[in-house]
Write a structure and sequence with these properties.
The chain is mainly alpha-helical. Helices cover 46% and strands 9% of the residues. It has a two-stranded antiparallel ribbon with strand order 1-2.
């Protein structure tokens, strides 16, 4: 009676039927989801916040406050 090992049984299966590829993809997938959530929260909370130090927004550039001559 021939004995079969675990490697021989899983040899013919496609890659998505194995556990290891999913386990290895879990870390990067969680990091991407966390990044998307962080970016969404940042835009919701601070997207339209005023400039507090007297600077002026010119397009995407924030200019430093104008210095008054003394």
């Amino acid at each position: 009676m021939p004995t079969t090992t675990r490697e021989q049984l899983s040899e013919g299966q496609p890659w998505w039927r194995h556990r290891w590829p999913w386990f290895l993809l879990l870390g990067p997938a969680v990091a991407i989801v966390g990044c998307v959530i962080t970016i969404a929260l940042a835009f919701q909370s601070y997207g339209d916040q005023e400039i507090q130090d007297g600077g002026a927004r010119q397009g995407l550039v924030v200019a430093p406050p104008a210095q008054t001559g003394q």
